[in-house]
Amino acid sequence: MQRLVVAAGLREGASVPLDSGQVAWLGRVMRRRAGERLALFNGRDGEWEAEVAALERGSGRASVLERLRPQAASPDIWLAFAPAKRGMADLAVRQAVELGAARILPVITERSVVDRLNRERLARIAVEAAEQCGRLDVPDVAPLAPLRDLLAEWPAERPLAACHPGGGKMQAGPPPGGQLLGPEGGFAAAELDALAETGFVRLVDLGPRILRAETAVVAALSMRQAIWGDGA
User: What region does 187 belong to: left with phi over 0, alpha with psi -120 to 50, or beta?
Assistant: First the structure.
């Protein structure tokens, strides 16, 4: 069953508007017609079966039928990462959504090669990934920001594990907190000093092998899912 995220509230009998992009995708790409079924979610009310009521040029509506699943919270894991290249950011966002990240924060470090990202594009990728992977919410994708700003604004009560060779092992303990992945060249010495000064950052090692940036995203979030995730 095709899944779509909507902004409107979901309840039995509700008539939910579909935006122009959803109408075009359903009608032109998926060849859906009025009367066919789909699933809707909004991050608040769970997942609902609905029926396509109308698909017209630029507008459409769906009639909500019954709830399929109650709302369940995703693991409260934040992912901060330094994109190695623009295409890597697309993949990292998709993988982070699939692995349950609650918030995604791209950062600029001293050795970063990317200094701008299309946030709207990344937000669309997050929506598409959430629709495809079956989760019931869409994580926020924050604007690209310098590492120093991330650390200054990070809640001190939220532990942050920064991946760095020679760090400790990821262990069960406090709440899931956040995960920080640096650039492929690693953190600069001044950045490591800044991380140590925060009081809430702990260095962790992802293992003995050198990982590509996109592989590190999967490795780090998979470890966190195994310890604190909704599949643990």
Answer: beta
Q: Does domain 78-228 have CATH number 2.40.110.10?
A: no
Computed on alpha carbons and rounded to an integer, the radius of gyration of the chain in Å comes to 20
Which CATH fold would you assign to the domain 3-69? Ribosomal Protein L25; Chain P (2.40.240)
pLDDT the model gives residue 205 = 92
Cβ contact 204:163 at 8 Å: yes
CA nearest neighbour of 57 among 98, 99, 26, 12: 26
Please check whether residue 186 is in contact with residue 192, taking contact to mean a CB–CB distance below 8 angstroms. Answer: no
Rounded to two decimals, what is the model's pTM? 0.91
DSSP labels, 44-85: SS-EEEEEEEEEETTEEEEEEEEEEE---PPP--EEEE--SS
Residue 26 DSSP label: I
pLDDT at 128 over 80: yes
Q: Are 56 and 23 in contact (CB under 8 A)?
A: yes
Domain positions in the chain? 3-69, 78-228
Strands 59-69 and 78-81: unpaired
Q: Count CB-CB contacts under 10 A for residue 207.
A: 11
In this structure, what are the phi and psi dihedrals at residue 177, rounded to the nearest 5 degrees?
65, -125
DSSP label of 178: E
